[in-house]
Amino acid sequence: MNVAYLGPEATFTHLAVTSCFRNEITAKPYITIPECMDAAMNREVDLAVVPLENAIEGSVNLTIDYLIHEQPLQIVGEIVSPIRQHLLVHPSRKDTWQNIEKIESHPHAIAQCHRFLRQYFKTTPFDYTTSTGAAAKFVSEHPECNMGVIANEMAAKIYQLEIVKEDIHDYDNNYTRFAILQRPNQDAALPVKNQSSVDKTTLMVTLPNDRTGALHQVLSAFAWRQINLSKIESRPTKAGVWDYFFIIDIEMKLDDVLIPGAIAEIEALGCGVKLLGSYSSYLL
Amino acid sequence: MNVAYLGPEATFTHLAVTSCFRNEITAKPYITIPECMDAAMNREVDLAVVPLENAIEGSVNLTIDYLIHEQPLQIVGEIVSPIRQHLLVHPSRKDTWQNIEKIESHPHAIAQCHRFLRQYFKTTPFDYTTSTGAAAKFVSEHPECNMGVIANEMAAKIYQLEIVKEDIHDYDNNYTRFAILQRPNQDAALPVKNQSSVDKTTLMVTLPNDRTGALHQVLSAFAWRQINLSKIESRPTKAGVWDYFFIIDIEMKLDDVLIPGAIAEIEALGCGVKLLGSYSSYLL
């Protein structure tokens, strides 16, 4: 089974894929989130794994927007993985790391280490890259650049960089949720290792235009059934100005009675509802 | 009156400031959103103007998070400005712009032109910068780099770049909301030009831990009073894992009865409520 992931090698997505799936899979790196999702839709791979939300920085908007507007894959699973950020440099600079002139990483990784950077590198500029792995790759290939990179342990190992400062993320309890995506109506079992999981269902809801309290009515349909929502999030529809759709995560698998009943009621109120997936969430 | 804005010169924030305020103000560029907000708190300036939300890309999380976690400024106004993106190159490359080898801009600007880039520059890499103005400045100072930049008309004028493709943003109806921020309890009148505005109030609400349906109850307090919400958004608290606070925009100014009544009820339910501002929203 082929699995696309947000590459290059040693990104947090790669780490999540190798930690969650059994060795029998072949993990294939793609450079952007859209390319991962395109690969799943075009049958180049069986599954795509992309970041969905970080507990500190919030949602990865590109994943949600691309799923809603461009490639209607279904969510067939979720991986929740702890995130530890380290400061890495080329081995030749391990004793002079305090003098690095630039720091490279993904914008989320830089944001997660905001306090550390303000304390140690207040005036050092940073460069945003498309992933922590890409930043590590660049620094390993450019020993002449006096740069540091924020990335994970796997990146230090694969790109042979030196960890000079461990656990530089500002907040403990830093986790990232990764979505496991599949073409619609393709229901192969996931080759996951034996690990604990909880059930989830994700819906997208659009509200009728300009109806005061429509969101309140939507939540009522869940509340009186005592259906627990673990998350509700708004995103711009891109169609109208200041028009939003909502992504709602429910803490149970799709059943025959409660969720279908809530969906039917919400639709009867004039809202649009789309089931994005009902799946297991694996905790690493 | 001194106004800090997200610089350098010719960013969309700069354009919003010069369009909304009378000429008597002195606009001062700062390089990052936190630095703008720090300047207002440290009395270096009287007001800070920073981007808050784009109609297509969604909220500028750094602004919201810094306002909540670091610098408790009050929102004293909002500027809503149309966004037009263009492709700019150094004048020496205006006839060979199809051959540029890299595109520089702010991540939001690049995301807003995703379709254009996939059509014209499918394999061209891009570099993220802290603002569209910074990207334009870099390209104007480095004629030897074969680069394009996505930025506004003001950037083309100030940095003497050539607009080679106009209006390359994917979606019409592209607007950005900018927050006008001030130190708490400092109530100077805003030096705005004569322009249309609507009233708004913004609240931050935190929910009690693990209470099913608490958000539903919060919305009930507004719904039964027929208080119209223009937006509700969740952000991670950064304290717990998968714990969120909510930013709620109300379509009216703070009154003596309805909003205070709703706030009192929400607090009685065990939620935290903080008034972030009650202000005029100016439409450019």
UniProtKB/TrEMBL annotation, chains A, B:
Write the record's keywords in alphabetical order, separated by commas: Amino-acid biosynthesis, Aromatic amino acid biosynthesis, Lyase, Phenylalanine biosynthesis
What pathway annotation does it carry? Amino-acid biosynthesis; L-phenylalanine biosynthesis; phenylpyruvate from prephenate: step 1/1
The reaction(s) annotated as catalysed by this protein in its Swiss-Prot or TrEMBL entry are: prephenate + H(+) = 3-phenylpyruvate + CO2 + H2O
GO biological process assignments: L-phenylalanine biosynthetic process
GO CC field: cytoplasm
Q: Which InterPro entries match?
A: ACT-like_dom_sf, ACT_dom, Chor_mutase/pphenate_deHydtase, Preph_deHydtase, Preph_deHydtase_CS
Give start and end of each ACT domain: 203-280
Stretches assigned to the Prephenate dehydratase domain: 2-183
Q: Which Pfam families match?
A: ACT, PDT
Q: What is its EC number?
A: 4.2.1.51
Spell out the SUPFAM superfamilies in the cross-references.
ACT-like, Periplasmic binding protein-like II
> Which terms does the record give in the GO molecular function aspect?
prephenate dehydratase activity
State the superkingdom: Bacteria
Mind telling me which residues the site (Essential for prephenate dehydratase activity) is annotated on? 176
NCBIfam families in the record:
PRK11898.1
Designated name of the protein: Prephenate dehydratase
Q: What is the lineage of its organism?
A: Bacteria, Bacillati, Bacillota, Bacilli, Bacillales
UniProt gene name? pheA
